[in-house]
Every structure is written in C-alpha cells, then in structure tokens.
TrEMBL record:
Residues 37-161 form the IrrE N-terminal-like domain. This is IrrE N-terminal-like domain-containing protein. It holds the Pfam family Peptidase_M78. The lineage of its organism: Bacteria, Pseudomonadati, Pseudomonadota, Gammaproteobacteria, Methylococcales. It comes from the Bacteria.
Length: 166
C-alpha cells in the first residue's frame, strides 16, 4: 500500500490539491464520498432521476446527489464532479447544477462544467500519485493505472495527456 503527501504546485487544479491535502488519507483509490462527508457535505444516492448528479445547497447545507444505478466508476466521477461544483463556489447564491451524463465530457464548453471535470480528474487521480506509479513503479499500462485509481480509461488518458505523460 502506498501513501502520498501532496503539495500545491500552483496548477489550475489547485483546489483539488487543497482538498486532498486536508481530507485525503493518502490511500488509493480515493473515496470522493468520504472526502465530501469529512467536509460536511451530504451525499445522497438516488435512482434514475434523469441525471447523473446534482449539486445544490438547502438551508446552508451543501448536498450532492448521484445516480446509484450507474456503474461504479461513473458514480465516483459524478461525486467528485459535484464536489467540485461546491468547492469551486458554483453552488453559492442558490445556484444548482444538475448534470446529465453528456456534461461529463472533457470537451464541453460550459465553464463551470469544465472546471468541475478538471477538479474531479485531479481529485481522483492526483498528479503526484500518477507520477509515482509511472516513474517509480514503472507502470505504463493505461488500463492498469485506471484500475489503481478506480477511474475510467478515458479519465486516465485525459490525466496522462495533460501531465505530458502520454
């Protein structure tokens, strides 16, 4: 088992690094629901309501809903994505985000959705941990890395590409 200590290197995903530094125990795979709970955010599984996830506030309480009928990797990304909406202040002033599955594309042009996707990718697959496995453990299989972090190969390919490793 590997544990990791993070440092914020000023990259655009610094909010995810801040959250990981404060709430992550350094063990993989990262549990976004546990992190949200440690932050005092209520995480609610729902079934087939026509959206993958929803982030909103009610009575000054931050809430994340996610579709528990979707496959596990999607659920994990959805929770991390919705957590991103809260952390990035997208849900302030009564704003809420209801995310259909098609909004999770990394090519989407809605700024808040793009930011939440980047947050989720960094939260679930932190740069320091990826570099550890690539450079120290010599793991270069996209599939194997995706399995280690419990993310889809699409997310892992995105991370490796953006880190200049692919």
């Amino acid at each position: 088992m590997n544990t990791f200590i993070l440092s914020d290197n000023g990259k655009p995903n610094h909010k995810a690094v801040e959250i990981l530094t404060k709430y992550w125990d350094g063990v993989l795979p990262i549990d976004p629901a546990a992190i949200a709970a440690k932050m005092g955010i209520t995480v609610i599984p729902v079934s087939s309501r026509g959206y993958s996830g929803k982030a909103y506030q009610v009575n000054n309480q931050s809430v994340i809903e996610y579709d528990q009928t979707e496959f596990l990797l999607r659920q994990r990304f959805t929770i991390a994505h919705e957590l991103g909406h809260h952390v990035l202040s997208h849900t302030d002033n009564g704003h809420q985000f209801r995310d259909e599955a098609n909004k999770f594309s990394f090519n989407i042009s809605i700024p808040e959705e793009t930011q939440a996707n980047k947050f989720a990718a960094e939260l679930l697959a932190p740069e320091i941990a990826i570099k550890h496995f690539v450079f120290k453990e010599k793991i270069n299989s996209l599939t194997q890395l995706a399995e280690l972090f419990s993310v889809s190969t699409v997310v892992m390919k995105y991370r490796l590409t953006n880190l200049g490793l692919l």
